[in-house]
C-alpha cells in the first residue's frame, strides 16, 4: 500500500488562467491556435480535447494575457459554469473561464483530471460572486486534496478509471448507433 498525502493543488502544478483577445479585432481570430472556452466543454464527453469551436491567431494570443497550455495540461472551468474538465491533447490556450493546471512531476495528468472531477462540488462551493460564481486562482491554488505520494500508483488508479470511462463511451456509441 502506498502512502497518501494531503496537499494543495498548487503542489501538483502551476495554476494558469486564460484570457480572451478583443472580439472587436478580426485579426485575432481564425488562426491556427486552438482556443478553448467553457462552451466547448459543455457538451464534450471525452477526456482529451484537441480544439474548440474557434481558433485565435498569434497576434490575438500576443494581444492578451492568454498563455499556451502544453499537452497534458488539465483544463478546469472556473466560471460559467465551474467544473468542466478536460486534458489538452496538444498545445492549446483558454479563455478567462479557466484555471488550468500545468501538472508537474509529482502528479499524473489523468489522475489530476479524475481528482478535479471528484472534487468539483467542493471547488464549486468555494466560488464567490454575485452575478455568477467564480473560483479565483488563489482559491484554486489552495484547494486541498489527498493523493498517493507515488506517481506510479496515481498512474494505476487513473488507468483503471480511464478503462471504465472508455467502456462507457463505447457503450454510448453503440446505443447511439442502435437508435439511428
From TrEMBL:
Belongs to the type-I restriction system S methylase family. The keyword DNA-binding applies. Pfam families: Methylase_S. SUPFAM superfamilies: DNA methylase specificity domain (SSF116734). Transmembrane segments: none annotated. GO terms for biological process: DNA restriction-modification system. The keyword DNA-binding applies. This is Type I restriction modification DNA specificity domain-containing protein. Residues 2-179 form the Type I restriction modification DNA specificity domain. Keywords: DNA-binding, Restriction system.
Amino acid at each position: 500500500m502506498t502512502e497518501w498525502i494531503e496537499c494543495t493543488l498548487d503542489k501538483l502544478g502551476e495554476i494558469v488562467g486564460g484570457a480572451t483577445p478583443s472580439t472587436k479585432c478580426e485579426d485575432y481570430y481564425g488562426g491556427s491556435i486552438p482556443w478553448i472556452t467553457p462552451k466547448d466543454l459543455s457538451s464534450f464527453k471525452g477526456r482529451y480535447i484537441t480544439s474548440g469551436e474557434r481558433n485565435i491567431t498569434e497576434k490575438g494570443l500576443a494581444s492578451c494575457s492568454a498563455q499556451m497550455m502544453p499537452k497534458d495540461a488539465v483544463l478546469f472551468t472556473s466560471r460559467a459554469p465551474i467544473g468542466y474538465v478536460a486534458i489538452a491533447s496538444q498545445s492549446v490556450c483558454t479563455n478567462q473561464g479557466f484555471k488550468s493546471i500545468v501538472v508537474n512531476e509529482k502528479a499524473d495528468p489523468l489522475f489530476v483530471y479524475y481528482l478535479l472531477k471528484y472534487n468539483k462540488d467542493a471547488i464549486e462551493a468555494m466560488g464567490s460572486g454575485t452575478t455568477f460564481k467564480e473560483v479565483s486562482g488563489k482559491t484554486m491554488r489552495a484547494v486541498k486534496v489527498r493523493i498517493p505520494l507515488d506517481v506510479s500508483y496515481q498512474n494505476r488508479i487513473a488507468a483503471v478509471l480511464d478503462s471504465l470511462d472508455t467502456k462507457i463511451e463505447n457503450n454510448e456509441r453503440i446505443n447511439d448507433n442502435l437508435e439511428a
